[in-house]
Amino acid sequence: MNRYLAAAALLGLVICGTAQGQECAQVIEGNDLIQWNASEIRVSAECEEVTINLVHTGQLAANVMGHNWVLTTTADYMPLATVAAAAGPPEYLPADDPRTIVATGMIGGGEETSVTFSLSGLEPGGDYTYFCSFPGHYVLMNGKFIIE
After folding, report:
1. In the list 21, 27, 102, 145, which could disulfide-bond 53, CB 3.0-4.6 Å?
2. What is the residue range of 80's domain?
3. How many domains would you assign to the chain?
4. DSSP percent split of the chain into helix, strand, coil, nearest 5
């Protein structure tokens, strides 16, 4: 019987370890209908680094229906999003703007990209928003980034 309890405990540790590891790497999908598949992303404050994997599930090219993933504070979201279009292609994001915490490159349909960043400068429970900076997309493609 002790052998079964030990095996169950080990299985529990493996499952918990896997779940925690998955919290530090997240996948978000954007499509040709200007939509994210998630309105929030939650990560553990125990993560030293987070990886966001962006998948464009559509078919349209980046110059027509490009998507990127940009993280900023919620206070900076609208000011940054509204000047992004003026920055122009290919990223539609002002270079070296301090309001951008992190961003992926712009991708088109069928493409994937990722970004890995440290949580060291971010506050658990802080107010963060992610969005797509392609012109006009920020209105529909935005969500909460939650560190818990």
Report:
1. 27
2. 24-147
3. 1
4. 30, 30, 40
**Domain contains 52:** yes
Question: Two tokens at 136?
Answer: 């006009």
pLDDT in tens, 16-34: 333 344 589 999 999 999 9
Structure tokens at 80: 């940054």
116-138 pLDDT, tens digit each: 999 999 999 999 999 999 999 99
Helix or strand holding residue 80 (H, E): helix 74-87
Residue 129 belongs to a domain: yes
Give the C-alpha distances (Å, rounded to integers) separating 1 from 4, 9, 12, 72.
5, 13, 17, 53
Q: How far apart are CA 66 and CA 34, in angstroms?
A: 9
